[in-house]
UniProtKB/TrEMBL annotation:
Its EC number is 1.4.1.23. Transmembrane segments: none annotated. Residues 1-25 are annotated as: Disordered. InterPro entries: Glu/Leu/Phe/Val/Trp_DH_C, Glu/Leu/Phe/Val/Trp_DH_dimer, Glu/Leu/Phe/Val_DH_AS, Glu/Phe/Leu/Val/Trp_DH_bac/arc. PANTHER family: LEUCINE DEHYDROGENASE, VALINE DEHYDROGENASE. Signal peptide: none annotated. The keyword Endoplasmic reticulum does not apply. This is Valine dehydrogenase. Residues 157-366 form the Glutamate/phenylalanine/leucine/valine/L-tryptophan dehydrogenase C-terminal domain. One of its GO terms (molecular function) is valine dehydrogenase (NAD+) activity. It comes from Nocardioides aquaticus.
Length: 370
């Protein structure tokens, strides 16, 4: 759908909300297959720039309402992420309701693939929290619109590698804005969540000369990182990490990591992490700004994984994808410069940059069809 016209001096706006109820999505599909136990929701936010691309999150949501809220927020974020990354793709996302450790099966994933196939390519799926490249191989046995597959099947493999690279590049740009040099050397960085992306981010930070503090709710994950990198410091909880002395805080788990309470006690000068939808509500960004904390917008810095799986659609080249993900440094730098020139928080500046591209480049019809 066409995006709102956002000029540099205009107030921040979201994409149009035709129903007036806070939802501006093109299409939301509920999927259910009792035989396999599949319960899923696919949300397509916008196809103004191209078909919606976004991962499949497998998570034990407390309710369908919680799952719906998450998929709506995540798919909308993908629209902005793809636009800011310069991709000719729209925003989509899917969630499967359940515990992937006990409920993920081949029949369920293949049933999910059949549902995605019915969308005719308007939504292209990939990995997310709770799903892996091997899962996408199973989905692809029933569906033509899958990326993020294993290298054995011609795919890009683990997209967390370039997601971490992009976050690191965004962090370098934030460090330059705050301390004048694009490096984390001599700084203390707290990484909350060291699973897929956080684990790779730790390596980049240590190689750059940072001191790294880590935490994760999954003890074996922490132990694996400690074994790989004995120099890291482990703390028992995110609350303990947030209350400690940090230069940079990197939320790399689930969303809503930045609440009013966190913003009030955080000592870090920079927040830059891989988690999606980090701000619990838009006002948190203003609180961070008022406290002199630079927030590098999540969908700006964590776009490396999207860049990687999008490259797979062209015939994957790791070198090409790596080069594109490295450009997140320049993208973040431009967003932070826009924030300074417009006198707005970085999250607002990032929205403006993304919305301008959607408005200027988006197809006049606004709806992508095969």
């Amino acid at each position: 759908m066409p995006a709102a016209d956002v000029s540099p001096s205009a107030p921040d706006r979201s994409l149009p909300d035709p129903f007036g109820d806070g939802h501006d999505h093109e299409q939301v599909v509920f999927c259910q297959d009792p035989a396999s136990g599949l319960r899923a929701i696919v949300a397509i936010h916008s196809t103004a720039l191209g078909p919606g691309l976004g991962g499949t999150r497998f998570h034990p949501y407390a309710s369908t309402a919680d799952a719906l809220r998450d998929v709506l927020a995540l798919s909308r974020g993908m629209t902005y992420k793809a636009a800011l990354a310069g991709l000719d793709l729209g925003g989509g996302k899917a969630v499967i309701i359940g515990d992937p450790r006990t409920e993920k099966t081949e029949p369920l994933l293949r049933a999910y693939g059949r549902f995605v196939q019915t969308l005719g390519g308007r939504y292209r799926t990939a990995c997310d929290v709770g799903t892996f490249s091997e899962d996408m191989d199973l989905v692809a046995r029933e569906c033509d619109f899958v990326t993020g597959r294993t290298t054995a099947h011609g795919g890009a493999g683990d997209s967390s590698v370039l997601t971490a690279l992009g976050v690191f590049q965004g962090m370098r740009a934030a460090a330059e804005a705050v301390w004048g040099e694009p490096t984390l050397a001599g700084r203390t960085v707290g990484v909350a969540g060291v699973g897929k992306v956080g684990r790779h981010l730790v390596r980049h930070l240590l190689e750059d000369g940072a001191s790294v503090v880590v935490t994760d709710v999954h003890a074996p994950t922490v132990e694996r990182v400690r074994e790989e990198h004995p120099a890291v410091t482990v703390v028992g909880s995110t609350e303990e990490m947030v209350a400690s002395r940090l230069d940079v805080y990197a939320p790399c788990a689930l969303g809503d990591a930045l609440t009013d309470e966190v913003a009030a006690v955080l000592s870090a000068r920079i927040v830059c992490g891989a988690a999606n939808n980090q701000l619990a509500h838009p006002g948190v960004g203003k609180v961070l700004e008022d406290r002199g904390i630079l927030y590098a917008p999540d969908y700006c810095v964590n776009a490396g994984g999207l860049v990687q799986v999008a490259d797979e659609l062209e015939g994957f080249s790791f070198d090409r994808a790596h080069h594109r993900a490295s450009r997140i440094f320049e993208t973040t730098r431009s967003v932070l410069a826009r924030a300074a020139s417009d006198g707005v928080p970085p999250a607002v500046a990032a929205d403006r940059v993304a919305e301008r591209r959607i408005h200027e480049v988006g197809r006049l019809r606004g709806i992508w069809t095969p």
